[in-house]
Every structure is written in structure tokens, then in C-alpha cells.
Specification:
mainly alpha, 6 helices
């Protein structure tokens, strides 16, 4: 896992496909200035952006995340965290209801 955004890795992948940063930014729906912040490691990528860049560069999303820096999420990880939190809330609600019913 890269500690910081590996701009050289991304530049090589873009060059292999004959693409530019402008195309990369447009694919993710961001401006070139915003993408420049990503390349300078001043803005993190979202899981959605990782997925878009993976498709654009023809590599697995995990590889994009690994080269994007330490805290970059891989698509799908956010969904699992959200589902676990939702399940925990539901269990707590059911336990409270069960306790209320037992108290009758």
C-alpha cells in the first residue's frame, strides 16, 4: 500500500492507454484543478472515484486504491460498514422492544 498518492504510477497507466489527466478528471466528474489536488496528495479519492479510475485505467479497483494512498477506500468497503451500522441499530431497536414487552 502506498503511503502517499503515487502520481508516477497513475501517469504511467494514463500513458499506456493514451489518456490525459483531463480525460481522467472528466471521467470522475471533477475539474482538472481538483484532480491536480489528488495528484499532489492534497485530496483523497472516494470509493466511487477509485472505481471510475479503475475502469478507465483497466486495472482492479484495489490496485488503484493501493497506489492512491493509505486511507483510500476500495469500492464496496463503505457499503459493508454502512450495512453493519444499520444492522447494529436494528438489533438495538429490537432489544429495546423486547425489553419493553418483557416489562409488561
Amino acid at each position: 500500500m502506498a503511503l502517499f498518492f503515487d502520481a508516477a504510477w497513475f501517469e504511467e497507466r494514463l500513458a499506456e492507454r493514451g489518456l490525459t489527466r483531463r480525460v481522467m478528471a472528466a471521467a470522475a466528474g471533477m475539474g482538472e484543478a481538483e484532480l491536480a489536488l489528488v495528484f499532489k496528495d492534497q485530496r483523497e479519492l472516494s470509493a466511487e472515484e477509485v472505481g471510475i479510475f479503475a475502469d478507465l485505467l483497466g486495472v482492479p479497483a484495489a490496485e488503484v486504491a493501493r497506489n492512491a494512498g493509505v486511507s483510500t477506500p476500495v469500492p464496496g468497503q463503505e457499503d459493508l460498514t454502512g450495512r453493519v451500522a444499520a444492522l447494529e441499530r436494528r438489533v438495538a431497536s429490537l432489544e429495546a422492544e423486547l425489553a419493553r414487552l418483557k416489562g409488561r
